[in-house]
Fold this sequence. Notes:
Helix content is 22%, strand content 38%. The protein is an alpha+beta fold. The chain contains 2 helices and 5 strands.
Amino acid sequence: xxxxxxxxxxxxxxxxxxxxxxxxxxxxxxxxxxxxxxxxxxxxxxxxxxxxxxxxxxxxxxxxxxxxxxxxxxxx
Length: 76
């Protein structure tokens, strides 16, 4: 099973809000996830963030691969 860390869209139409989730690679973007690592709101100054960095590091240690966008968000 290949596990990835990626963004899942949420909120009303036209809003740019995302959840950062851990899920299986083959599942749908907004489908069921294994764990939610936080949320991210795009467009504000440096983005409004609510992140669980300790859980992110755990999932990286067990082999999950983050998307490019998620990796950039957690670098900040």
